[in-house]
Write a structure and sequence with these properties.
Layout (H helix, E strand, L loop, with lengths): L14 H13 L2 E7 L7 H19 L5 E5 L10 H18 L3 E3 L7 H15 L2 E6 L5 H8 L5 E5 L14 H18 L4 E4 L3 H14 L3 E6 L4 H7 L4 E8 L3 H11 L1 H13 L1
Helix pairs in contact: 2-3, 3-4, 5-6, 6-7, 9-10
Bound molecules: flavin-adenine dinucleotide (FAD).
Flavin-adenine dinucleotide binds next to strand 4, strand 7 and helix 9.
Length: about 280
């Protein structure tokens, strides 16, 4: 059972709790991106177990009317073991999802994984459809990756980037990342046929997306994390397609502390809740 303070950011330990959350979000007009917590597996057994759990989750999604899709981490499906294992397990998940009509996102991890993630995503996008990939505006390579992705079927999620990367390959100050994000967003609205996902809580970027939509007419959606600016998510859902990224699973503690460590306000919230509990 997840303690009350952590349940702001994590839906629960089980798929059933995550599906319940998807149903509550659906009632408020927000779609759900389900992520089973897990990453950096260094053997086949753990990665294959998560691939099987995702196949079960896809079956669970089929039992509800709520709009829900899944988002997987490459290192959760074996990328730290080998690209071949990642490709094999990702294909198992994507093939099952395609048969059931469930969309699959690939999260993007640190810069050492970008090429393999884009290669596997592209192969599966061309073979099955119904997949999308995340790219990080902080990486200097991302404009080139967007040029490649413009010709690949499926959606692309643009985020600022959650990993500390060296200045040789990444913008490292916040203003430069914001500038890169705005430039990438414009490229996507201009060059993509549709399937632009704005993965950000930043009001400036969300406003920018609305302006670009008015200019280019490209369809888009806004994606935000569970527990972050939720009132804004529900407000936005009146006008835009909004999806909430909802993690669940037994390894919730490390995810929770990552969210808390990101912002002083979250740390205050966590300490207040712990002290008053
Ligand atoms: P920021 O400039 O960091 O924040 C803008 C404003 O949003 C802040 O001022 C604050 O009001 C609010 N805010 C942002 N974060 C928090 C928080 N934790 N708590 C409270 N308020 C907050 N990164 C990857 O590298 N790979 C991925 O695959 C990936 N997938 C993601 C999927 C989704 C749906 C989202 C929303 C983010 C994802 N990220 C991923 C994380 C992303 O890279 C950023 O680290 C994160 O979103 C913070 O950047 P921001 O655009 O929200 O802007």
């Amino acid at each position: 059972m997840i303690p009350p303070v952590a349940d702001r950011f994590v839906a629960g330990e089980t798929a059933a709790e995550a599906i319940e959350r998807a149903e509550r979000l659906d009632d408020r007009g927000v779609g759900t991106i389900l992520n089973r917590l897990g990453e950096h597996y260094d053997d086949r057994t753990d990665a294959a177990a998560d691939a099987a759990a995702y196949r079960d989750l896809i079956d669970d999604i089929e039992t509800t009317d709520a709009r829900a899709c899944i988002s997987v981490k490459p290192s959760q499906l074996g990328l730290d073991v080998s690209e071949a294992l990642f490709r094999e397990l990702a294909e198992e998940v994507v093939a099952h999802a395609a048969a059931e009509g469930v969309f699959v996102w690939f999260d993007m991890e640190d810069r050492t994984t970008t090429d393999a993630t884009l290669d596997v995503h592209e192969a599966l996008a061309r073979e099955y459809g119904g997949v999308g990939v995340c790219v990080q505006a902080n990486l200097r390579r991302t404009p080139d990756d967007l040029a490649r992705l413009a010709d690949v079927p499926g959606k692309v999620r643009l985020v600022k980037g959650a990993y500390d990367e060296p200045a040789a390959v990444a913008h490292t100050d916040a203003a430069a990342v914001d500038e890169a994000y705005a430039a990438c967003l414009e490229t996507m609205f201009r060059e993509f046929d549709g399937g632009v996902a704005v993965g950000s809580h930043d009001p400036a970027m969300i406003d920018r997306a609305a302006t670009l939509h008015a200019e280019y007419g490209t369809e888009y959606e806004v994606q935000m994390l569970m527990g972050v600016r939720e009132a804004a998510q529900f407000d936005l859902a009146d006008a835009v397609d909004v999806w909430q990224y909802v993690p669940y699973g037994g390894t919730w503690l490390s995810y929770f502390w990552r969210r808390v460590a990101e912002r002083r306000a979250n740390l205050r919230f966590a300490l207040r809740a712990i002290l008053s509990g």
